# Entry
Amino acid sequence: MRIELLNGKDIENRIRTVATAGKLSRTKGNVFDVLDSCNDYEKNLKLINRIISMGHKTIVEHDYFVFALCDVSLAVEQTIIGYRLTSFTIKSGREVDFGSVGYYVPNFRNPDGTIKKNNKELQKKYCKHMDFLSKEYAKLVDLGVKEEDARFVLSYSYHTNIVMGLDARELEKMVKDFLYGKKSNISEIKELGEQLFAIIKEYVPYLVPQIEAEKNHSCDEWKDYYISKSIKIYEKPQLAHYTDNVDETILRSALKYRNQCSEEELVSIEEELNQKNPNWKEDVFHKILYSSEQRELEQVQFGFEIPISLIILKHLTRHRTHSLLVPDFVPLWNLENYQTPPSIKRLGEKQYHKVFQKNLKVFEEFQKENIMEEDLIYFYLCGQFVNVTTTMNGRTLAWISRMRCCTKAHWEIRSIARELVKQVGKIAPLYGKMLGSTCEVFHTCPEGKESCGKVNER
# Structure
C-alpha cells in the first residue's frame, strides 16, 4: 500500500483560506478585506483550532485534498466509497486484466489481536490459495469468459488503485473511523488510517488534536443484536416500502412549488386545470422530466431490498444520494451464497463452482485456527452474494436508472435496476415513464461513438 497526497501541499495558502472563512462572519469589511488580514500563518492556525474546538467545523470544508491510493484491496475500496461526501476515480475491473495485480496479505492474529505464532505458515498457505484463484481467473478468461465476469472468482484481497478527493471535515471522519472505530480491527484499514494520519500531521495540523481526542472513545457493540444464525439471500430486488400515491404527491408538489398554495387550495387549482387540459398531469410530468432541478421528485421515497454480489456492490454504493445499508464485514457471512454469471453458466460453470467450494474449504481450515474474524474477510470472493437495503428519493432513482439500465452497464446491476424500475412503474405509472436508460427516456445517448446503437433504433 502506498498513499500520496497529490494536491493540497500548499499549506500556508490553504490555512489562509480556512482562516478567512472562520473570520468572515464576525469581522468588518468584505471578504477580500478579511482575506488581506489573514497573513500570519501561526495566528491563522490558532484561530482555526479555536473555532473548530467549539464545534464549528464547516470552515474546514473549504480545505480540499486529492490522494493517490496505490495497491489497496477491494475490501478497502468498498469501505472508502461508502463515505458519501468523498469523490473517487477507480481502476475498472471490467476491461482490465486483474489476474496479476497482486493482493493484500494480512498478519493472522488471535482473537485478542496478537499475531499468531504460526503466522508465517498461515501466510504461505494463504498466498498459495490466492495464487490459485488468480490462475482460475485466467482459465476462465481463456475459456472466453469476459474479464468482468471472470473476476467473480477473485478474492476481496486483490489490489486496485484509486484517486480520492475529499474535504478536511470528511478526511477527519474517515481517519477517526480507520484508527479508532470498528473498522480499525481490519489491519489493512488501520494501516490506511495511519498513513493518512501521518500526512495530516504534516499538511493539516489543525486536525491532529481533533483526531487524537477520539482515542478513548469505544466502538459501538452490536453483538447482542446479531440474532440470525444463517443468511438467506433475497430472491430478487424488492420494493419494500414507498410513499403513498407517488404520482399524486409529485403532481401536487409541482403545483405547490409554483403557486405557493395550501392543500385546500390545490383542489380548486386541479379542477381548473382539468377544465383547461384533460392531459395536464402527463404534461406536468413531461415538464419535470426536462427540468434541471426536479425537486418535485425528491418529495417521494422508495425503500428497496437488494441481493447483490460484492464486486457489483460498488456500482450501487457510488450513487451517493441514497441511504444504503451494507452489512459489516464481520460477523463473517455465509460463503456458500454466491452469484454465477450467465456467461460462466455457458462456458465454465463446473469449474466455477469448484473454485467456490475450494475457497470455502480453505476458509474453514483457517477458521479452525481460531483466527481473528477481521483477518478472514479476504476469503470473500467477488461473486459473494450479500443482502443490502436502501432508501432513495424519486430523483435519485431516476438518475440511477439512467446509468444502470443502459445496455453498457454490467449485466447484474442492469438486471437490478430494471427490476426496480418495473416494480416502481406498477405503483406509479406516470412517474414510471421517467425511469430507464437515457435512450429510452430522452431518445438520446451521451456515449457518442461508443454507443451501443440502441438509440438509433428509435
